[in-house]
């Protein structure tokens, strides 16, 4: 097995460049990194942790904290972070932090203090005052994805704008009775972004003179959650809205499944729009605002590495674009048809 | 901030017991651990990594490698592992390892060699010969969940038995034309467990004298994958089976969505059974074999810790029970009804 000097010689670069290329600490061009890695591989060279730490003063580990793993958004962000970290040969230390859980308390009280990572990516986290205090005393770079953005680097879509566009799409199709579906019953899992989406919906309704029709129906932010809430909401034809904005695609898909079960045709009897462009969106012909959380995860790593390399770098706030994808779950309201259905059944 | 000696004194235990209680290395009763932790918290004591490593020779980190993060099974296992590790104050280092990916190659070639974890939990991994060689030379405890079990500790359901019971449930209802749905078209994402499930189905069909009806329809192991394959399979009434065994609930749910779209009633026109008891199973009234991957994740940590504490401990193979949950997606075949439908449409 060769040493770093052998690797540097084989790749025709300096030892420090070889070290940067192998550890991911500091800038190296893609071409150089590829060459150094090929040389290291040919020589069977593996940078040992202790040696790397001595050179860089880093743990070469990034902590990722998220409240849930079993939602599409979080899994996608995590994959994006993972991919970007692997390219830089950083380890990913994962911490679950469901609001109110022991695990979350452990995370903020114990694991942060242990400082076993160089920086932290917080996904969909809305920290309490106590938790914010802990984050500040952590004293290392923090990037927020789809969560709070008080003074940290942050990546997300513009949640309020996305929900506003979704609502305005329905308003433009003639709908006036539009409900907003989603938001956890006990408030525990409602994320920062979800609250902004509700605001965007409310603003659009107010601006269109539909303030009286504003209605939020709470539900767990999952497919079964949206399903359960929609069965209840849609069950009574007299109070049934003509359209729904789902807080995310999972809730919107749940509503479509509920509508089918109740014999309500989508989009003829009910228009549904979501936010996400989830893996299931196409299967349900769901009109939605598209986001790419995988890319958000990659962007978060980029921002974190930037700040690690240059602690004086300015704080960045990245808004990912979220274009409207019109599929077949939304349609212009047909007053005659709904009148006929009202009489006919 | 107090030292370990202060913590030990406050909790009325020896320093080594206090250390074990705080690091999770070695046996301490739950009662003692709780007392020591309370004392440590009151004193603001946090074990630093380097100090812990000096005492125990451990990194206090467990590596977890899995091919996908966005499937229910993997997310659930990961949450179970996370919960159990947090209780022991171990860190979780996560590695994605989609078959054939650069990330997977990096994992086996680079991260394993770096040995930054005390043990590894491999979830749904079917290693190549080269990868197995790397795992062996890793030289630390490995536990497999829902994957291969060649000489390592392993946790899973009995996949072959689960698929056999699912198939026999349909055979018992009078079905003879039963297809098996699932298994990736390119073979990349077909896990070890999925292959065993296919075997269980084939064995049950053979034993029932239905060898001629054996039919595997490949699909990606996701809801949209099952949906797409089922649309094709069920589209032609002349060759349509009367029942389906899904390789997992996601595929089975996709088939139910496809059936609804094609106007085929479940269970009257098609019986569907899955394996998992996925979060969506109840919403679709899916008959399924229940497994609890969260518990499998916890059990994997238990086995790993056991082996860390006692390297001479025997290798264990845990089969989690997977009871049949009968809901409303399966029914006795009604020869008259199907004959009438055959004529009528």
CATH architecture grouping of the largest domain in chain A: 3-Layer(aba) Sandwich
Radius of gyration of chain A, taken over Cα atoms and rounded to an integer in Å: 24 Å
* Secondary-structure element pattern of chain A, one letter each: HHHHEHEHEHEEHEHEHEHEEHEEH
Number of domains of chain A: 3
The largest sheet of chain A is: 6 strands, parallel
* Assigned CATH class of the largest domain in chain A: Alpha Beta
What is the share of helical residues of chain A? 40-55%
Structure description:
The structure is a homodimer of 345-residue chains. Chain A is of the alpha/beta class and 345 residues long. Chain A contains 13 helices and twelve strands. Chain A has helices at residues 4-10, 15-23, 30-42, 49-56, 72-87, 102-114, 129-138, 159-172, 192-207, 223-235, 249-261, 293-309, 335-344; strands at residues 61-66, 91-96, 119-123, 142-145, 153-157, 178-181, 216-217, 243-246, 271-276, 287-290, 317-320, 324-325. In chain A, β3, α7 and β4 (142-145) form a beta-alpha-beta unit. In chain A, α2 crosses α3, α5 crosses α12 (293-309) and α10 crosses α11. Mean pLDDT of chain A is 86; it is low at 48-52 and 337-345.
